[in-house]
């Protein structure tokens, strides 16, 4: 009798586990609660390339054996962009060099980026005397493919360098000479041999290829066919990452989905959005942009909602770090996309570290740091009732 | 005589083997390698034994699963012989994941000079923690090894070296010690694909059996005390330089040390129907200040296994079959410390639990069903990823 009891109990437990798999297994978070994942409608070949890029970006760890450093900031792409979100003060990097548009005079002294970490036996860099510097918190990666496909003419249509409309907001592109390995896109516009750059805190990167190659080299000390100079010696060395890998990572960044707004129909969220527009935030944080043609159908000719104009704006003395890149002035920063803002804490250790260097610990604090072209909107924010502020913050957190 | 002893042990051990362990036996974790079933044929001077482990696995992390797999975890073969009076030989060859990894985990010669003073040399198990010494799959009611015993203490940790061990008996008490000098770890402790401090990565140096990367011996020592009525407690310590600080006679960097402390405890109650097995480990690793804080200077982990026999008797002709319920708690913190930039705690920790059921037709064989849940928090303390795993497996000595 006992043996049948034992056998029955064993079979019961086995069956229970088998049939309760769905009940006892962790469930996936909602797609609007996470930043990672591909855009919809990729075909099979594109999904495979996305996954290859994902593995290189999030799983590949560089060590002394496969090219790390010897001077570096991070050991992998993913360590600065947890869950493809914004970075943390631990992963914040420092750029140093010039105060004007005459170019970086410290390139032979480790510029433009401080490699503050080093393999054992090596000495990390220090900011050389006479150089100005600024800290940059790594941005979120999501939706970058959409931003890359906005035409230069659309960006120029939002620019108002002379503030001809008198709203106190100018907005200028960062015109720079292309790196030697880059080629202009079909929607690029040239002016005096320079092209509009749009990625990075100072809009100093032309494209996701440019951004990726720089990050491999300056963040991890990894050389490529595109950027073959070792960060320590300055000598050209063999590529430590293949062009194929770089292309996969670029494709991964291009095809990460855009952040999804949560609860957009909520009345408080909608009221907050109206306030956001009425106090002038939307003049720089443009709600909607559109992409041009792309070989990836999922990205081609789409209207999307990043809340940025990808232009440089003067943000006032409080945010002037006396360092710049390209044509940007020291107090000018590229309008950061606000999509995904409410999800920042899921990649920043449960806290907010906002603005270019993470100095703002809340959305409200970030708003109150606005000066220069953002001063009028800040003052209007300060005059809002508590209820209106709550609705505005609810809206921003929904992004 | 020695070989005969093995035979006698084998017959005894197969009937008492497995959970719960019998604390009335005067055996310590350090005796585990010799407390295995062996078989000898005729007058062959060599006895042979081994065990295998295989299981199914269905794993899901944050709702995403790669599906169902069968896994052949390992097959281990033991060879032993008594070379002469008081001189014994034992080796353990392990085939992991089929033949993906083939390791000589243990191969040592023992000379008994005195019960208190035995000389052992060859490839030995570093006596750090209890699980590393007593790691055979069929002994446990859990399919996976404890997290801290694998990812912090890298079981099975063995290395080439030499040392002494011995035991002293007084009434209900047994006092044992082990002390060895071996080759150490390598630079991979802080330069690895895991992107964290990892003794597991550090032990993977393929040349470790012929050359010490640091050029200095590593010390491992353990003291264990067992009382027949209470159980066994052990304290172990390991210390050595792990980096190649000198190359071709040139000193290229400072020596970097690691220190490992471990306390283990096991006991059983109610006529051995309930047992507890636990281990705490702390690792301290010297890391250059200018290297990344991703690599922690301190690690901490523990596990507690609780096992209870709910049925014991004759089943399908097996006279002493057992039906056990088991529960394990796991915790590991791979990076104990604070960020220089914010002063906030560095996370990078995992906790989890594993309930399971096990059927032991005989002491040396076990059929197991485990459900494992774990929650992993990354370095920055972001929302944890949750993993659930269902496993059904078998493990048996042969």
Summarize the structure.
Chain A has 399 residues and is of the alpha+beta class. Chain A has helices spanning 2-19, 21-24, 44-59, 144-148, 152-158, 208-220, 243-255, 267-278, 363-368, 375-382, 386-398, and strands at 71-72, 93-97, 113-114, 117-118, 132-136, 174-176, 190-191, 194-197, 289-290, 303-304, 312-314, 332-334. In chain A, strands 3-2-5 form a three-stranded antiparallel sheet, with no helix packed on it.
Q: Could you spell the SSE succession of chain A in H and E letters? A: HHHEEEEEHHEEEHHHEEEEHHH
Largest interface comes to: A-B, 47 and 54 residues
Estimate the strand proportion of chain B. over 45%
Oligomer: heterodimer
Cα-based radius of gyration of chain A, to the nearest Å:
23 Å
Count of helical regions of chain B: 3
The CATH topology of chain B = Porin
List keywords for this structure.
heterodimer; A: 399 residues; alpha+beta; 3-stranded antiparallel beta sheet; 9% strand; globular; B: 398 residues; mainly beta; Porin; 16-stranded antiparallel barrel; two-stranded antiparallel sheet
What does this protein look like?
The complex is a heterodimer of chains A (399) and B (398). Chain A is an alpha+beta fold. Chain A has one domain. Chain A has 11 helices and 12 strands. Chain A has a 3-stranded antiparallel β-sheet with strand order 3-2-5, with no helix packed on it. In chain A, strands 6-8-7 form a 3-stranded antiparallel β-sheet, with no helix packed on it. In chain A, a hairpin with a 2-residue loop joins β7 (190-191) and β8 (194-197). The longest helix of chain A is centred in the N-terminal third of the chain and has 18 residues, at 2-19. The radius of gyration of chain A is 23 Å and the shape is globular. Chain A starts with a helix and ends with a helix. The mean pLDDT of chain A is 94. With 398 residues, chain B is mainly β. Chain B has a single domain, classed as Porin (Beta Barrel). In chain B, 6% of the residues lie in helices and 54% in strands. Chain B has 3 helices and 18 strands. Chain B has a 16-stranded antiparallel β-barrel. In chain B, a hairpin with a 4-residue loop joins β12 and β13 (274-285). The longest helix of chain B is centred in the first third of the chain and has 15 residues, at 2-16. Mean pLDDT of chain B is 90; it is low at 1-24. Chains A and B meet through α1 and β4 of A and β1, β14, β17 and β18 of B.
